[in-house]
Amino acid sequence: MTVSGGAQMVSGGTTLNNKILGGGFDVLSAGGLDSGGTIGAGGTEYVYGGGIASGVTVSGGTQILSGGSAIGNTVISGGSEVISTGGLAISNTIGNGGSEILSGGTDSGSTIGSGGTQTVLSGGTARFAKVNGGVEHISQAAPPAARPSAMAGSRSCRRAA
């Protein structure tokens, strides 16, 4: 299914290989699952408590986790993943042109590849991040991120405003 300029609500069901494009949005709540979908330019996916996005590619669009989970997703090419309170990202890949912003949620075990950026703001937590050619920015007020097992990128720490 392709959603462009419309909306799709998933609660207690599953969508497979969905495409969310310009002006379209997808809302996952309790029991809702998006498996293998794509969030393209101008598309937005909201993942609320009990919702799961698994194997989703965020390329030019935005994925917002607020109580929901993202597992094994890829964020590239102008795509962004925003993790707010209660949101959880596990083993995601932030690749070329992709960004992940943690403003109250948790990321565990994601890889920040070449050209990718992870920003950890106050209230956000990054654990076991693998910086592999990308950049991880950590606000001074944010909890400390675990040191990656291999680091081939850069980390910067800054004082919170």
Total strands? 24
H/E element string?
Answer: EEEEEEEEEEEEEEEEEEEEEEEE
Radius of gyration: 15 Å
Would you identify the regions where 5 or more consecutive residues have pLDDT less than 50? 142-151
Largest sheet: 9 strands, parallel
How many angstroms does the end-to-end distance come to?
43 Å
Per DSSP, the total helix count is: 0
Strand order of the largest sheet: 2-5-8-11-14-17-20-23-24
Give the percentage of residues in beta strands: over 45%
Average pLDDT reading: 88
Main structural class: mainly beta
- Give the proportion of residues in helices: under 10%
Overall 3D shape? globular
**How many domain modules?**
1
Structure description:
- With 161 residues, the protein is an all-beta fold.
- The protein is built from no helices and 24 strands.
- It has one domain (2-153).
- The chain has a nine-stranded parallel β-sheet, with no helix packed on it.
- The chain is globular, with a radius of gyration of 15 Å.
List keywords for this structure.
9-stranded parallel β-sheet; 8-stranded parallel β-sheet; 161 residues; 24 strands; mainly beta
What's this entry about, in short?
With 161 residues, this protein is mainly β. It contains no helices and 24 strands.
Could you outline the blueprint of secondary structure elements for this entry?
Elements: E1 2-4, E2 7-11, E3 14-16, E4 19-21, E5 25-29, E6 33-35, E7 38-39, E8 44-48, E9 52-54, E10 57-59, E11 62-66, E12 69-71, E13 74-76, E14 80-83, E15 88-90, E16 93-94, E17 99-102, E18 106-108, E19 111-113, E20 117-120, E21 125-127, E22 130-132, E23 135-139, E24 154-158
Parallel strand pairs: 1-4, 2-5, 3-6, 4-7, 5-8, 6-9, 7-10, 8-11, 9-12, 10-13, 11-14, 12-15, 13-16, 14-17, 15-18, 16-19, 17-20, 18-21, 19-22, 20-23, 23-24
